[in-house]
Amino acid sequence: MKIKKEKGLGLRPKEHVRAPKYNTDPNDLPEELKRKIETLEGIESFEKAKMTMVIEKHLFSTDMAKSANRLSMPLKQIKPESFLDEDEIKFLAIQEDWPVSVISPLLEDEALTFRQWNMKKDNGSVSSSYVLKTRWNEVRRKNGLKLNDVIQVWSFRDVGNNLHFALVLVEKSKDGGSSSEGDRCSLPSSRSTTPPSKNDVDGESTSCDIGQGTEAKEQEMIEGAQINDGSSSGNGRTSTP
């Protein structure tokens, strides 16, 4: 379905989406992940699960920070219409919480919350990210995820059209990474309304990212971003589209 770009939906022109470096064919995913997906209730077969790669990214300091407790997926790096329908995009655009099931790199079922975060810039425009939050800190620790690791986030659907995600670790950090909680970044929590520093990028901090490429920093830099979570105003309801 072709979706028109509407104000507030946070869709980005396709030229901003960077081509992945690693596999994008679901048939080439690890066999153990395929088998895991086929064991889930409501999945007829791996072939019918509508596997779609959402994003491939390095883990940034904000993804590692205990105070942030989220995995950030900037909208300018993804194509929401590739794995969400129009109603679901609109549902996320009003910053509702969406409980989802996530398969971790260790092939464990994890219950996380899928949500859109909007960050207001000084010029009045808004930059948005999708995030997986609530228990993200626990998931990354259990799976030994480190700073600068490369992961892919895949979406898939069951027979009831319920949304699921799978996290695939495609490359460990070449410098060994770090499991640091990132406290020195002084990042806002998932309920904070405190503006991040000017070194923050779509919720992903560059000021204390070790070994991040200049290209990634320049692509994601946003001056004067302010997180507009919505939860502080009592709009943090948990529901589904």
Automatic annotation (TrEMBL):
MF annotations from Gene Ontology: DNA binding
InterPro entries: At2g31720-like (IPR005508), DNA-bd_pseudobarrel_sf (IPR015300)
Composition skew (Low complexity), residue ranges: 176-197
Keyword Cell cycle: no
Entry-linked Gene3D superfamilies: DNA-binding pseudobarrel domain
Principal location: nucleus
Protein name stated in the entry: Putative B3 domain-containing protein
